[in-house]
Amino acid sequence: MLLRSGLFVAPDNRGFAAAFVAVVSLILLRVWVNQPLDRVQARLRDFSEDVLAFLTISLLGVLASYSDAAATSGFSDATLAHYDALLHFDWLVWYRAVAAHAALQYLGEAAYFTIYVSPIVLIGYFAVTQQRARSRQFLATFWLGVVITLALFPLFPAEGPLAYLWHGQIPYMPTSALYQEQLIPALRLHRVTDIDLGALRGLVCAPSFHTVSGVIFVATAWPVRHLRWPILAINAAMLLATPIEGTHYLSDMVAGLLVALTAITIVTLWQRARVAKVRQDCGSLSAM
To answer: Is residue 8 helix, strand or coil?
Structure first.
């Protein structure tokens, strides 16, 4: 996809070096504990393997969004803003409230970045409790959420509500800034060719991937009594911050919710079908 779009990952920067070190370190750790001698090494094996899988899915997903964006045309902001009006959601009211209160800005920015916290907590918990199947189900659901989001993104490319709705001087620049408005046209015109892994930007407006992730994180943690409420609280705060810090319409978030529920349902049904087949096969062997 990157080659087709004329895009390349720039290797001569700190972002590439950091990603390379992280991936190689996880691979070496996984190889070292390939044949675990005790439970500690087994937990290290599972943790390193699953973090590597999560990191790979995330990195490839972000890179694919650049190629996706380069192949789009036009913007869907008018449609998304129309759906927000039908939902009685006024993005400008939320933005003015945040712009007027520094505390909301700091809290929103911190909450928005917790998208990196929940997956590490979940993967770490499943590794410590040696629930490999649960961790794999989480990774499969997250992967499917990424795939569906990338498949839908070209249908709804958008500048974002800050660029589309706000006119005049910007009193507060959210975390996502105006990257969608600036980068997507540049990618379409092939004015951007090198991708800096240290400066990756979120280009997907609809569906909101923060919403996709938050719902999947909460659904994964919900059966675990010790994680249920902390993960719910963290992700509720993240979702409240998403309209402003992620410059998303509410309709983006509704679409993200539907994507997450679709991914969760598909993987759950697939898992149940696998379990049923294993039981059937075991029953057939017992009968023999």
So the answer is: strand
Helix (H, G, I), strand (E, B) or coil at 148: helix
- Where in the chain are the domains? 8-287
DSSP string, 182-216: HHHHHHHTT---EE-GGG------SS-HHHHHHHH
Over residues 184-211, the mean pLDDT reads 89
The structure's pTM equals 0.93
**pLDDT tens by residue, 25-75:** 999 999 999 898 899 999 999 999 999 999 999 999 999 999 999 999 999
User: Would you give the distance in Å from CA 203 to the centre of its chain?
Assistant: 12
Pair of tokens at residue 228: 């249920």
Neighbouring residues of 17: CB distance < 8 A, sequence distance ≥ 6: none
Rounded Cα distance, 132 and 48, in Å: 12
The answer to whether 86 touches 93, Cβ cutoff 8 Å, is: no
Q: How many CA atoms lie within 13 A of 5 on its CB side?
A: 25
How sure is the predictor about 120, in pLDDT bands with cuts at 50, 70 and 90?
Answer: very high
Distances (CA, A) of 45 to 24, 32, 107, 229: 14, 8, 35, 28
Average pLDDT, the chain: 93
Does an H or E element contain 68, and which? helix 39-70
